[in-house]
Amino acid sequence: MALGPALLVSALLFTIGVAGVLIRRNAIVLFMCIELMLNAVNLSFIALSQVLGLAGQVMVFFVMTVAAAEAAVGLAIIVAIFRHTRSVDLKNINLLRG
Amino acid sequence: MSAQTAFYFLAGAAVISALLCIGQRNPVASALWLVSTMFALAGIYVLLNAQFIAAIQVLVYAGAVMVLFLFVIMLLHVGREASDIRGRATRLAAVVIGVMLLGELLVLSRASPGQLAVGGGSVGGAGSPLEAFPAGRAGQLAPAAEGVVGAIARPLFETYLIPFEITSVLLLAAAVGAVVLAKRKI
User: Fold this and answer.
1) Which of A16, A17, A92, B36 could disulfide-link B18, Cβ–Cβ 3.0 to 4.6 Å?
2) CB distance B102–A60 less than 8 Å?
3) Is residue B66 part of a domain?
């Protein structure tokens, strides 16, 4: 399988993830967009591991572990914020604004 | 169906699902489209000879992580209010930033794998990525000799043993942290 198309798909998915973070205000959807970006990076790792050896696949393994940890802690933070503000909309979460 | 056709079908499915994921008002629909993206990506991983990672992708990402997301969405009962998609100006800015980023990434992806890994060395030459990545050349031949899982287990438990052990500490810290954050009173 050619390397180029896989990297193109990876670039497209990463860009969609960034656009999602920019246009959404729901904190949970924002987290999902971050997962989308991590998946895009995983795809580049796998595509390049065809050329550069299996270390890329090991890195994907680590990325998945970190993503799982990040999702667990992040969602716990969202639940804690929801208890305070009764909302997960970012326009209501401006506690640190001066 | 040839591998090429299957790749383009899965790639199209992944990109369209991702677009629908960021465009859906309802967070549950967003999450389900993201699961669809992840399944398509798992198919692409199989085509790219990463069967073990494809299985892990379905089990851990599409299974565990996304169920956690859906669980929180339904627990908090979000998405019943007005749309959370930002206004026209922000959407336009997002498109502009996205196109710029996509252009940068495409320029990067035109570079050869050797240039991406280390500063300009060619594959196999001096300062090549096969030296930068210790599992390199042996790892390319390994799947045929050791099977798919054995081939990834060898670098994981030999070259990357210490990072692997540190990962377990990270997961423990994350589990404790999640419990502490989500609990009302400890």
Assistant:
1) A16
2) no
3) yes
Comparing alpha-carbon positions, the chain B residue that sits nearest to A54 is B139
Quick check: A51 and B116 in contact, CB under 8 A? no
Please give the model's pTM, rounded to 2 decimal places. Answer: 0.86
Residue numbers of A between 49 and 78 with CB closer than 8 Å to B? 49-58, 60-62, 64-73, 75-78
Looking up residue B11, the CATH number of its domain turns out to be: 1.20.120.1200
Domains held by chain B: number? 1
What is the rounded CA–CA span in Å between residue B164 and residue B134?
Answer: 16
Closest alpha carbon within chain B to A85: B76
Nearest to B34 by CA among B49, B12, B18, B15: B18
Q: Can you tell me the distance from the alpha carbon of B28 to that of B79, in angstroms, rounded to the nearest whole number? A: 8
d(CA B140, CA B105): 26
Provide ipTM, 2 decimals: 0.91
What residues of A are in contact with residue B159 (Cβ under 8 Å)?
Answer: 55, 58
- Please report whether residue B1 resides in a domain: yes
pLDDT tens-digit readout, A71-97: 999 999 999 888 888 888 888 888 787
Residue appearing with tokens 């996509």: B102
Asked whether residue B30 is domain-assigned, the answer is yes
Q: Which member of A5, A55, A77 has the closest CB to residue B181?
A: A77
Alpha-carbon distance B148 to nearest alpha carbon in chain A (angstroms): 10
